[in-house]
Structure formats: C-alpha cells, structure tokens
Amino acid sequence: MDANIEEVYAVFGELVAVQGVSLKRLQRQAADLDERLALALDRLKKFEEPDDIAEHRPNGHSGREVPLAEGDGQAERGLPRETSVSGNPSDAR
C-alpha cells in the first residue's frame, strides 16, 4: 500500500514539474492560505455577542430590527411613543 502512495506522490511531483509549478511554491501558497484563515478565525472569535457584530456592519444595521406595532404596550406602561420630526409615530422608524 505504501508503494502505491509513493507512486502517486511521484506522479503528482512529475505533473507539477511538467506544468512549471514547483511543489515548494504550492506548499508556500498553502501555508499562506492557512495563516490567512487562522487570522480571519481569530478576528471572528473576538466578537462574543451578536451586538458586537452589528456595530461593525455598514450604517450600524443589525438586520434584526422590527418596527413597533400599534398597541405595543408603551402607552399602557406610561412610556412615550417614538415620534418623528413630523410628529407622526409611523414615521419614527
């Protein structure tokens, strides 16, 4: 079985040489891609909560906003309704 694997590597090595691409170059490219992937994963791990991710989106949009519905309970709790400059609650969002 090991002889078959060695033969496959030999054929692959010849193919790479014929195509003008060195195996060392491919190994360097693979190592570079591994390093870039590791850096990207490290950056993703820094975001512990979804709100952290939302802060870094364009215009601060979280993609999870839900408009207030009529009778949302704010008036019943004594909270003022959101209003726009025009004073119309439906323009607030």
TrEMBL record:
Residue ranges, compositional bias (Basic and acidic residues): 48-64
Residue stretches of biased makeup (Polar residues): 83-93
Region feature Disordered, mapped onto this chain: 48-93
Designated name of the protein: Uncharacterized protein
Native species: marine sediment metagenome
Taxonomic lineage: unclassified sequences, metagenomes, ecological metagenomes
